[in-house]
Design brief:
CATH topology of the largest domain: Aspartate Aminotransferase, domain 2
CATH superfamily of the largest domain: Type I PLP-dependent aspartate aminotransferase-like (Major domain)
Order of helices and strands: HHEHEHEHEEEHEEEEHHHEEEHHEH
Helix content: 25-40%
Radius of gyration: 21 Å
Bound molecules: pyridoxal-5'-phosphate
Number of strands: 14
Shape: globular
Distance between the termini: 28 Å
Strand content: 5-15%
Number of helices: 12
Structural class: alpha+beta
Number of domains: 2
Largest sheet: 5 strands, mixed
Length: 385
């Protein structure tokens, strides 16, 4: 089987893990955690960072740190992985779901602006959603497939409506927005180092930002809100720390970040070449204001006469190729059918038409050729032709 996205741990991973065992630093105390935090800050141009045991935990921690609490609403795009919404729910808050733009598949800032003007009001310095009476507490843009949201626009809205921004940059490391790295575009930015992301720590995440007090507050909450060496805790905290073992893997991975991102972009460019004469399909969005890290790559099916994405996945499986459907939007998830939502023209249109293809960093030219040939063969021989 040619897998869709598997990690490459052939660098210093084994060496650093061995170091953890030899020094007996296997848990949440140890030099790799600090080193990993520093490295991610350097790579993302953020001043401060706190490592967490997952991206989801990082999102929950970041939202809590900017003050999201029970019964609040948090603005987010519906077209994302379920974890973005779950982190909001874990605060006791509710996602307020918006569409994405067809240009970038990220938060539709035009719809957001109109809706905020028409459907919210300010009361005692807080913004309220008129129809539910809930306080609007934050904006959570998602850097879809590693492609940043249009953060200048998001920031303008955040300022206008006095809302903090927590960015879900889970798959965004290595991307750029108007020639900036991602760590300074939001109040807090959250990365994931899950196994299928561009770099992995086995499992893990990180919250980064430039406001020292805010990031230190997040760190405090991530370590059970303990004060001092004794068992004194000044509020309800979490156990969200990353272990030295996980950070050791992360440190080995980040040494190869630029190599991995380069490879991801190369794979994306190669698929674009292989399918350049194929009708009825399109590629994932690119905009002039961002350079995606191309976390995932694939095509969208534009011609209704072509096989459905699930059929394509089954056919490709018979060729020994793992291909996948992509996110089902949050408003279509049973768990979120009560969440307030706006019109979802783009999310509804794209979500069932996305086919993701093998894009592991160690994918060989030959294997990518096998994938491309199979896709070409299947789509060219379909009824649409
Ligand atoms: C991977 C991902 C997450 C969750 O990260 P975990 O580390 O798996 O908890 C959240 N949001 C998006 C957009 C993701 O792709």
């Amino acid at each position: 089987m040619i897998p869709i996205a598997v990690p490459d741990t052939s660098g210093n991973e084994a060496k650093y893990l061995q170091e953890c065992i030899e020094t007996n630093f296997v848990s949440t105390v140890g030099p790799f955690v600090k080193k990993f935090e520093e490295q991610i800050c350097i790579e993302s141009d953020a001043k401060y960072g706190v490592a967490t045991c997952s991206g989801t935990a990082g999102l929950h921690l970041a939202l809590t740190s900017v003050g999201v609490t029970r019964d609040d609403l948090v603005i987010m795009p519906s077209f994302t992985f379920i974890a973005s919404a779950n982190a909001i729910s874990q605060c006791g808050a509710v996602p307020w779901l918006f569409d994405v733009s067809s240009e970038s598949w990220t938060l539709d800032v035009v719809q957001l602006r109109t809706t905020l003007i028409n459907e919210t009001e300010v009361f005692e310095k807080n913004l309220f959603h008129k129809s539910t009476g809930r306080r609007v507490a934050a904006i959570l843009p998602v850097y879809t497939l590693g492609h940043p949201a249009d953060m200048e626009q998001v920031k303008n809205l955040a300022e206008e409506f006095n809302l903090p921004i927590v960015a879900d940059a889970a798959a965004g490391l290595g991307s750029r927005y108007r020639n900036q790295n991602l760590g300074s575009l939001a109040d807090l930015t959250v990365f994931s180092f899950n196994g299928n992301k561009t770099i992995t720590s086995g499992g893990g995440g990180m919250v980064v930002g430039n406001d020292k007090n805010l990031v230190e507050y997040a760190r405090h909450l991530s370590t059970t809100a303990r004060v001092g060496e004794e068992y004194h805790h000044d509020e309800i905290g979490f156990n969200y720390r990353l272990t030295n073992i996980q950070a050791a893997v992360g440190c080995a991975q980040i040494e190869r970040l630029s190599e991995f991102v380069e490879k991801k972009r190369y794979i994306d460019a190669e698929y674009r070449k292989h399918f350049s004469s194929l009708g009825g399909i399109k590629f994932f969005p690119r905009t002039h204001w961002a350079t995606s890290a191309c976390w995932f790559t694939g095509i969208t099916i534009e011609d209704k006469r072509l096989p459905s994405v699930s059929t394509l996945c089954k056919l490709l499986k018979s060729y020994g190729i793992q291909a996948r459907t992509f996110w089902k939007p949050i408003h279509q998830q049973p768990a979120y059918n009560l969440a307030p939502k706006e019109q979802m023209l783009v999310s509804n249109s794209i979500s069932s038409r996305i086919l993701t293809l093998p894009c592991s960093t160690q994918l060989t030219k030959e294997d990518q050729g096998v994938v491309a040939d199979a896709v070409n063969l299947i789509l060219r021989n379909s009824d649409a032709k």
